[in-house]
Amino acid sequence: MFADPITQSVIVPAVAALVLMAAIRLALGDKGDETPPLATAAIPIAFLTAYVVTLGLPPYPPRASSQKLAYVALIGLTLGIALDLIRPKGPAWLVPLAGVAWPAVIAIWLAWPKLKGFDLFAVFTVAMLWIGGALAFLRLSRLRAKEPYSLAPGILLLIGSVGAAGLGFHFASIAMAQLAGALAAAVSAALLWNWIAVILRPDGPLPFGRGAVFGSTSALFAIVTILGLYTETSLWVLLFLVPIFFAHLVFGERPGGDGLFARAFRPVLLLVVGSVPLLLLGSVVMVLSILTAT
């Protein structure tokens, strides 16, 4: 049953995300601002569930980059939950610092086999990926802080995950394509839950907590870094993913007001706008493939 790629990459993470969100919400009850951030941490947990179903339990210590990926997502999730618990009374600079430092740690750890061999191109690749990753972490964290009930962080993560899955499939990294697809499925399930909730009432969704932001973004960034370091995927192609995380700036904070139609339409509008860099990415990959073939 679990050997089917569609089951592994779509059904398992989507169902796991929905079940876990409901279970966490029911288990913690109504505790004000504490419950919702922890509930959306179900997204990276669902991704890890799909990882185990697809690749099995990673060994400790991990050796291959694909094995490190699971630990990156787990540590990112733990870091995000810790920030959710600390931030109300902690310093304001703590989340931005984590958003800059953590992707650097991820990139260096994944690239270490190349870096310890003094591979200068690997150093350059890691530096560029770190800049792109830090921008994504900071932007999503900023969105989460400004609009706790917004669907924007999840939508942007969904688009980025779909892009990474497409690149993995195109450049023959099926495992990374499946895992990126699993992340997209988990995020999609949470977005469906919240989209229905936001239509019913403006504060109906479960806010996208830092556990969800750091856990999911860590998984996506690790997948992109692996593609950039260990496959034929061009670094410049990967950098086309970065503008996705700034799509929200195109039409302002809350276009259309807070009416029922606006609440239902706003996420769809962001999905369309955020997909523009994805279309450009697909065009670039297609052109490069044609040029390489000729």
List the helices and strands and how they pair.
Elements: H1 5-28, H2 35-39, H3 42-55, H4 65-86, H5 94-115, H6 120-146, H7 152-170, H8 174-200, H9 210-230, H10 235-238, H11 260-274, H12 276-293
Helix pairs in contact: 1-3, 1-8, 3-4, 3-8, 3-9, 4-5, 4-9, 5-6, 5-9, 6-9, 7-8, 7-9, 7-11, 7-12, 8-9, 8-11
What would you say this structure looks like, in words?
The chain has 12 helices and no strands. By secondary structure, the protein is an all-alpha fold. The longest helix is centred in the middle third of the chain and has 27 residues, at 120-146. The mean pLDDT is 82. The chain has one domain.
The outline comes out as globular
In angstroms, what is the radius of gyration?
18 Å
Number of helices: 12
User: What's the pLDDT, averaged over the residues?
Assistant: 82
Distance between the termini: 42 Å
Helix content: over 70%
Largest sheet data: none
Secondary structural class: mainly alpha
Q: What order do the helices and strands follow? A: HHHHHHHHHHHH
Number of strands: 0
* Total domain count: 1
Runs with pLDDT <50, length 5+? none
How large a portion of the residues is in β-strands, by DSSP E? under 5%
